[in-house]
Design goal:
There is one protein chain. The chain has helices at about 1-5, 10-20, 30-55, 55-60, 65-85, 90-105, 105-115, 125-150, 165-200, 205-225, 230-245, 250-275, 280, 285-305, 310-320, 325-340, 345-365, 370-375, 380-385, 390-395, 395-400, 415-425, 435-445, 460-465, 480-490, 505-515, 520-535, 540-560, and strands spanning about 405-410, 430-435, 450, 470-475, 495-500, 520. The chain is mainly alpha-helical and about 575 residues long. It folds into two domains: about 35-155 and about 165-375, Na+/H+ antiporter like fold, CATH 1.20.1530; about 400-515, NAD(P)-binding Rossmann-like Domain (Rossmann fold, 3-Layer(aba) Sandwich). A six-stranded parallel β-sheet has the order 3-2-1-4-5-6, sandwiched between helices.
């Protein structure tokens, strides 16, 4: 509440709450073991929710950027951390563990940041989540390989066992992961929805909630106990399996309250581990390590994304997503301590870097828009960043060749698809501009004219034939993107007619100011439709109903923007 009143990120409030009840501040000291266990549940439930909304098709669609991108970024950050540790005089094993800890971002922090900004279902969000899933898989391999490599790295053998073959251990790890994934996708896909379906048919809501919870945490535990996979990754695949059934929406709704509570406890548990004295004892080490996390690996990720010819906005989102470390870093560091590869000093530095990076991550996300806008105002620099055209953009002119008096549609989600079907039935030509590669490929197979790209970028709207179009329909749900798209369109062709959707009253004022012909205020149209139907149930002349609804349309946006105040 204090953080909210001070207009600070909520994460700072959670972290500070953990610090207050932690062992390094006077007063009450909470049970850190219980806090850690509860936070593990939160991570698993959060990943289960991601799995419910992130299908195999989504994962497969981002594999070309997520897999090589994550591997290269992990490699760069690990090498930087390793070199830094060796410069401090640490051992080979300590340097490797320290580098790995700085290379892997927190899935919890990422998902919360994406969800707060409505980015989880966007192209950039899917790439970021896919990227983190690859990081999680790499970390699982590291957790299994480190004990096998411990003696050769200068540590002790776990449980007094002889040093195992690293290659054999890795092969066994990949084998276990493969068996688990195959079991979930083949057996689990048939069994789990079937069992939950029987529970749902009982009509008991609490029994269904317990069933979903048992599936999520049961598979998470089974993945860890039987296959050596992290509970979070196991819960993720449980969600993926259920996502293929018609139970996914209700299962997700039932889990939301528990996800939110337990996820908050994750941040509290991180705050409990933090000893503020480390800021005084190792300030230089913390600053340099923090620079690797906030700058080093973020720049590496940006470079990789741009090399794959994605827009600058995508590279900035990925960079911001990775500018923090979290739960897997703590797990790796604790394993390193148990194997005597690293000491408590390394743990203190990693914890300090984690707390600071998590705290500033929301602020880093806020810089994406200003940086993106600044680059748009410097076209020469933007062309350097996006210097290689995608093949789709090179062929864009041929896509709209010969089209005149057509409609340029930006975004083809649920709203855009409905509009598209209406246009197709009426025989109206239209061109779809979208950043989702899966949607574009699907539309191309249907013979619909498409352009892959960001409509806020120079040239994309021109490629869509905006100069010859009759109308531009902006169906994207993002208000910030919509304002940029409309601004770009009016610069290219001031007289172009525009129809745009919005949920924000301030944006509707902007659209009116630049001469947008039709602004569809989503909540207003919903309210007017319901009001019209309600009035039609009484003996009120249709002309009077139309007059009332028409009058409300004139003032309705302002009323919705200021609920509770008369107008």
């Amino acid at each position: 509440m204090i953080a909210t009143k001070l207009k600070l990120p909520l994460l700072l409030g959670y972290l500070f709450a953990g610090l207050v009840v932690g062992p390094f501040t006077p007063g009450f000291v909470a049970d850190s073991d219980i806090a850690h266990q509860l936070s593990e549940i939160g991570v698993s439930l959060l990943m289960f929710g991601v799995g419910l909304h992130f299908s195999i098709k989504d994962l497969w669609s981002v594999r070309k950027i997520a897999i090589p991108g994550a591997l290269v970024q992990i490699g760069v950050a690990t090498i930087l951390g390793y070199l830094l540790a060796r410069f401090w005089g640490w051992s080979l094993g300590a340097g490797l563990v320290f580098g790995l800890c700085l290379s892997v971002a927190s899935t919890v922090v990422l998902l919360r940041a994406l969800a707060e900004r409505g980015l989880v279902e966007t192209v950039n969000g899917k790439i970021a989540v896919g990227w983190l899933i690859v990081e999680d898989l790499v970390t699982v391999v590291a957790l299994v390989a480190l004990p096998a490599m411990s003696v050769s790295l200068g540590g002790k053998s776990p449980h007094g066992e002889a040093d195992a073959s690293v290659l054999m251990t890795l092969l066994m790890t990949f084998g276990k992961v493969s068996v688990f994934v195959a079991a979930m996708l083949v057996i689990g896909k048939k069994m789990i929805p079937g069992v939950l379906g029987k529970v749902a048919r009982t009509g008991s809501r609490e029994l269904f909630t317990l069933g979903v919870l048992a599936v999520a945490l049961g598979i998470a535990f089974g993945a860890a106990a039987l296959f050596g996979i992290s509970p979070a990754l196991g819960a993720f695949f449980a969600g993926v399996v259920i996502s293929e059934s018609d139970l996914s929406h209700q299962a997700g709704a039932e889990m939301v309250p528990m996800q939110e509570v337990f996820t908050v406890l994750f941040f509290v548990s991180v705050g409990m581990l933090f000893d503020p004295r480390v800021l005084m004892t190792h300030p230089i080490e913390i600053i340099i390590a923090l620079s690797i996390v906030l700058v080093g690996k973020s720049l590496a990720a940006m470079g990789i994304v741009l090399l794959f010819r994605y827009p600058v906005a995508t590279s900035l989102t990925i960079a911001a997503s990775l500018a923090q470390i979290g739960e897997f870093s703590f797990i790796l560091m604790n394993l390193g301590i148990s194997l005597e590869l690293v000491n408590q000093q390394a743990l203190s530095i990693v914890l300090a870097v984690a707390v600071i990076s998590i705290a500033v991550n929301p602020l880093i996300f806020k810089t994406i828009g200003p940086i993106d806008n600044w680059l748009k105002n410097h076209p020469a620099l933007l062309r350097i960043c996006e210097r290689k055209q995608r093949p789709e953009e090179e062929l864009a002119e041929s896509v709209v060749d010969g089209l005149n008096n057509h409609i340029v549609m930006i975004g083809y989600g649920r709203v855009g698809a409905t509009i598209g079907r209406a246009l197709a039935q009426a025989g109206v030509d239209y061109v779809v501009v979208d950043q989702d590669r899966v949607i574009i490929e699907d539309l191309q197979q249907q013979g619909i004219k498409t352009i892959f790209g960001d409509a806020t970028r120079p040239g994309i709207l021109s490629h869509a034939g905006l100069e010859r179009a009759r109308l531009m329909v902006v169906a994207t749900p993002s208000n910030s993107l919509a304002t940029e798209i409309v601004r770009s369109a009016k610069e290219i062709r001031p007289e172009i007619k525009v129809c745009v959707r919005t949920h924000d009253y301030e944006d509707s004022v902007f659209f009116e100011g630049v001469g947008v012909e039709r602004i569809v205020f989503a909540e207003l149209e919903l309210a007017l439709e319901m009001a019209q139907y309600s009035l039609s149930q009484y003996e009120i002349p249709s002309e009077e109903i139309d007059s009332v609804v028409g009058g409300l349309r004139e003032i309705g946006a302002g009323v919705l923007a200021r609920p509770g105040k008369s107008n």
